[in-house]
Amino acid sequence: MSFESRPSPSLGVLASGTGTILAAIIDAKLPVMLVVVDRPCLAVDLAAEAGVPVEIVPRTSFGAGFDRAAYTEQVVDVLQRHAIDVVAMAGFGTVLAAPIFERYAGRVLNTHPALLPSFKGWHAVADALAYGVKLTGCTVHVATEAVDEGPILAQEAVPVFDDDTEEQLHERIKSVERRLYPETIRAFLERQELQGVPR
Ligand code: GRF
Predict the structure, then answer these.
(1) Which residue is closest in CA terms to ligand 1's atom 3?
(2) Most CB within 10 Å of its CB: which of 56, 102, 108, 116?
(3) How confident is the prediction along the chain (199 residues), in pLDDT tens digits per residue?
(4) Which CATH architecture describes the domain 9-195?
(5) Which residues are known catalytic residues?
(6) Helix (H), strand (E), coil (C) string for 42-79
């Protein structure tokens, strides 16, 4: 792997859901060169409207036989084919395995809708609500193979109101994520640029 300084590291975004975080990243004019999805979802239309290439790496199994490592290899191949330097997960519904964290070590970012290390996992908002916390929030961090761990880059608190539904609370958190994640990605890319991206 050679190290060279190139002006703009290119960003790939992984998404599965409604794509509102992806939309915020695109609106922030970050250098999104590719969107990868694991299923048909609104993120595909959003990327297409913005003129960003989309690759669907379909997840064929949701059962016990799912080969996570092989699936991850396919995602990495697609990212490599598009010369992606930094990966931002934005509500990607498949937990990825070691290959991406080896190939993109320290260069996979994630936003999580809770104040880590509290409420890890896919049900973070419901879990925070069920626990009865009065403050939750979001965390932008460097993703590692251990889910929702890895160095924290930014956090912001969000209040929980007594009559909140999961949907209302999640939307309040996402309104912060849509600002904090792009800001944090931008600062991260600027640091990568200064240091030279490993290729
Ligand atoms: C965000 O809350 C993110 O933290 C979580 O998934 C959500 C994605 O939101 N991992 P959207 O689908 O982009 O609206």
Answers:
(1) 91
(2) 108
(3) 444 555 679 999 999 988 999 999 999 999 999 999 999 999 999 999 999 999 999 998 888 889 999 999 999 999 999 999 999 999 999 999 999 999 999 999 999 999 999 999 999 999 999 999 999 999 999 999 999 999 999 999 999 999 999 999 999 999 999 999 999 999 999 998 877 766 6
(4) 3-Layer(aba) Sandwich (3.40)
(5) 112
(6) HHHHHHHHCCCCEEECCCCCCCCCCCHHHHHHHHHHHH
